[in-house]
Amino acid sequence: MDPKRNRIFLDSNVIVPGFFSVEGSPRLILDLISLGLPILGVVTGQFNLMEVERTLRKKLPDALPVYAEDLPLLNLEVVPLPSPRDLGPYLGHVQDKDAPVLASAELAEFLDRILPVLLAGPFHRP
User: Fold this and answer.
1) Which among 3, 82, 92, 113 is placed 20 to 30 Å from 101, CA to CA?
2) DSSP one-letter string for 32-82
């Protein structure tokens, strides 16, 4: 990875409101990403995209075509679904529904620099 390039991981909690609101932090994040700045690499997980589509089908089905048309503008790197083995370190420490998101972020190397600091800090529990 280019040390001057920052990779950020997008969760569905940024993607959905970012697409369908005209203001707020999620919208600002997606607007910045859509500029294609060379210093930003944007990653999400296949699990997150499935979650976004499930949410849209349930709450905003008419928005699915807009989402499908605009999603490529973000030029996202999509991490495949994590395996059960990838989920292991998170199960029992976070809600089961969040384990695939964290595993996807780690598979995207997003947590390589952050997770060790968090685990070594005051938040670590034996």
Assistant:
1) 3
2) HHHTT-TTEEEEEEHHHHHHHHHHHHHH-GGGHHHHHHHGGGG--EEEPPP
The tens digit of pLDDT for each residue in 76-124 reads 999 998 888 888 888 888 888 888 877 777 667 544 555 555 556 665 4
- 6-9, strands of its sheet edge to edge: 6-9, 40-45, 77-79
What CATH number does the domain containing 61 carry? 3.40.50.1010
Report the domain count for the chain: 1
Query: Structure pTM?
Result: 0.73
Residues with Cβ < 8 Å from 88, sequence gap 6 or more?
A: none
